[in-house]
Amino acid sequence: MLAAHQIDGPTIFRVQPRESTMPEREVEDVPALSRATGTGWQDDLPRPSRMIVPPEPVEVMAMLPDHPPAMFIWRGKRHRVARADGPERLHGEWWREGGHEADTPYTVRDYFQVETSTGGRYWIFRLGDGERSDTGPMRWFIHGAFA
Questions:
Q1: In which band, very low, low, confident or very high, does the pLDDT at 94 lie, cut at 50, 70 and 90?
Q2: Using an 8 Å Cβ cutoff, are 73 and 30 in contact?
């Protein structure tokens, strides 16, 4: 994937995988002609082709607090979930400076791949484990869309 940024003239870069446990840090921009690192994308952990950074809040209705969404509202539009897969539990990078995520003290994210009744496929996560309040506020976010 190539893209251009306007700084002091056009800069062309490509993206490559970077080792991280948090999706927003798994990709880095590198000069287009830089050497490949040999690091590859994980096939067993599908990621959306369109990441939403920063993740946007969504309102969610779920059968139980630790279950996948049955319905969500994003940007004022209601989406009924037809299928869901997950959770994929991610923990914050506690070894980074500051001990937790820079933007939140909570470290547990439960990600769900959801497909809506109209065919949209999204990547949604709950901040917290759905049971214990010390793992997060149980708020929901959308982090990406699958092609």
A1: low
A2: no
